[in-house]
From TrEMBL:
This is Chlorhexidine efflux transporter domain-containing protein. It comes from the Bacteria. It holds the Pfam family BTP. Keywords: Membrane, Transmembrane, Transmembrane helix. The keyword Transmembrane helix applies. Residues 2-62, 69-132 form the Chlorhexidine efflux transporter domain. InterPro entries: BTP_bacteria, PACE. The chain crosses the membrane at residues 7-29, 35-58, 79-97, 103-126.
Length: 139
C-alpha cells in the first residue's frame, strides 16, 4: 500500500469503527447517543496514541524481522496491547458515561470484543475490495 492509501485505510477503519460502535452502544445501553459518540471518539484517540507508544517500545524489546515473529509472540503482543488499552479506557468510560467501574469494565470488554471482530471483517473486506478496485488501477 502506498502512503495515501494507508491514510485512507486508517481513516476509513476509524470512522466506521466509531459509527458502528456508537450504534451498537446506543442499542444496548440507555445513554445519550452524543455521550456515547464522544466516549467512542475519546477511546479511538486513546487507542491511536496507545498503539503508537506500545508498538514503539514493543519493537525496541523484540527486535528483528517482524514477519518472522511467532504466533505465540503475536498473541502475546495482542493480549498485552488490549490489556494496556483497558487500563486507559475503563476509567475513561466510567467518567464520560458516569457509570461505576464494573459497568465500565463490562461495556469496555463488549466494545473490545466487537472491535476485534470488526477488525478482522474490515480488513478481510478491504483486502478483497482492494483487489477488485485498487489493484487493477495500479497494474
Amino acid at each position: 500500500m502506498q502512503f495515501k492509501e494507508r491514510i485512507f485505510h486508517a481513516v476509513l477503519f476509524e470512522v466506521l469503527a466509531v459509527l458502528l460502535t456508537t450504534i451498537g452502544m446506543a442499542i444496548f445501553t440507555k445513554h445519550e447517543t452524543s455521550a456515547i459518540f464522544g466516549t467512542i471518539v475519546a477511546i479511538s484517540l486513546t487507542a491511536v496514541v496507545w498503539n503508537f507508544v506500545f508498538n514503539y517500545f514493543f519493537d525496541k524489546v523484540f527486535t528483528g524481522a517482524r514477519e518472522k515473529r511467532s504466533i505465540k509472540l503475536r498473541t502475546a503482543h495482542t493480549v498485552i496491547f488490549e490489556l494496556g488499552l483497558l487500563i486507559f479506557t475503563i476509567p475513561l468510560v466510567a467518567y464520560l458515561l458516569n457509570v461505576d467501574w464494573w459497568t465500565a469494565f463490562v461495556m469496555d470488554i463488549g466494545m473490545t470484543l466487537f472491535i476485534m471482530v470488526y477488525t478482522f471483517v474490515f480488513n478481510w473486506c478491504y483486502d478483497h475490495l482492494r483487489l477488485r478496485f485498487v489493484a487493477p488501477a495500479t497494474a
